[in-house]
Design a protein that fits this description.
- By secondary structure, the chain is an alpha/beta fold.
- It is 43% helix and 17% strand.
- It contains twelve helices and twelve strands.
- The strands form two sheets. Strands 1-2-3-5-8-9-10-12 form an eight-stranded parallel barrel, surrounded by eight helices.
Length: 346
């Protein structure tokens, strides 16, 4: 089983955005040294606990700080952007780091309605039908990044359009989703697909079956290729792993219930101010879906997950928080999760 990493660049109560970025660079180096296959960065906007607002910039930072690991987006929310802009960004990233770039594409807004409006219309941006035009936008990005470019018809004439002047390779394009829609589209287009198991936790088996059963081989891929994501907290003891997972668990409950969104709290802060009794059941259900434990237990849970869904790769989202007194530019629990897990899997 291969392991990969998903990073939202979390921001704790003691951290600036710069501190969070420094912690991500350190985490990526740990993943690179430990043999993880890929390192993906998310796109979320206007959230006090998440600094992953711009995947292409983060990918450039992480790829420059590492040596061999593949780096990509998990994912770019394509309705927020003009397809040509994304094609240009990722064609340049691939040119700078050939063979190491993944372009993961999602359809969700990744933000609140006000921020979505600002993203799509603040500078005369993407049209109102961006979500309904998602399949066309995916096709456009793939075509624009190809070495041969595309022909764009304007006023009855065909004009050549290239994402970059002389491409010799292209990023691997993945479709991401937490529902049936992207699974069906990935199958139709013959693209690899990732289910956001870390976010939904439900419908995983159905989505993967839809993808595999409907897959049509294409130029990019001869047979289905997929994996899934999962929230993970690993520590020397199970008790410590559960304590470290608590701040992120409480943040997710707040997100799902309309509670206050704030920077991620320290473990001790989360323990002193637990979620309301009415939401304890939701917290417990989330905890059951996450992989939390000592190294051997966590490795066993991941093997079972991979076997259940018939995948040879699992992308872990390291969710461990921090104890009071932790230096602001590091995330020791997240680094320990990756190191301990890699040792246990090997």
């Amino acid at each position: 089983m291969h392991l990969s990493v998903l990073d939202l660049v979390p921001v704790r109560t003691d951290q600036t955005s710069g501190d969070a970025l420094a912690a991500t660079r350190r985490l990526a180096r740990v993943a690179d040294a430990a043999g993880y296959r890929r390192y993906w960065l998310a796109e979320h906007h206007n959230m006090p606990a998440v600094a992953a607002t711009n995947p292409p910039l983060l990918i450039a930072m992480v790829a420059g700080a590492t040596d061999r690991i593949r780096v990509g987006s998990g994912g770019v929310m394509l309705p927020n952007h003009a397809p040509l802009v994304i094609a240009e960004q990722f064609a340049l990233l691939e040119a700078a780091y050939p063979g190491r770039i993944d372009l993961g594409i999602g359809r969700a807004p990744g933000s609140d309605p006000v921020t979505s409006f600002a993203l799509r219309h603040g500078a005369g941006g993407v049209d109102d039908d961006a979500v309904s035009r998602f399949p066309t936008y995916v096709d456009n990005v793939v075509s624009m990044m190809s070495p041969g470019g595309v022909g764009l018809e304007v006023q009855g004439r065909t004009h050549p359009l290239f994402a970059t002047p002389h491409a010799t390779s292209v990023p691997t394009v993945w479709l991401l989703g937490s529902s049936d829609y992207s699974a069906r589209l990935a199958a139709e287009r013959g693209l690899p697909y990732v289910f956001a198991h870390h976010f939904s936790g439900e419908g995983t088996a159905r989505a993967l079956e839809l993808y595999r059963s409907g897959f049509r081989p294409g130029e990019a891929l001869a047979e289905p290729r997929t994996f899934l994501t999962v929230n993970v907290s690993v520590a020397e003891s199970e008790e410590e792993a559960h304590r470290l997972a608590l701040p992120q668990l409480e943040s997710m409950v707040a997100l799902r219930t309309g509670g206050q969104l704030r920077p991620q709290r320290f473990v001790e802060e989360a323990e002193k101010d637990p979620v309301a009794a009415a939401h304890q059941g939701m917290l417990a259900a989330m905890r059951e879906r996450w992989v939390i434990g000592a190294p051997d237990s966590a490795a066993r849970q991941l093997h079972e997950l991979a076997s259940t869904y018939d995948v040879d790769e699992v992308m872990v989202h390291p969710v461990g928080g921090a104890f009071l007194g932790t230096a602001p530019d590091v995330a020791p629990a997240r680094e320990a999760t990756l190191s301990l897990l890699a040792d246990a899997i090997s």
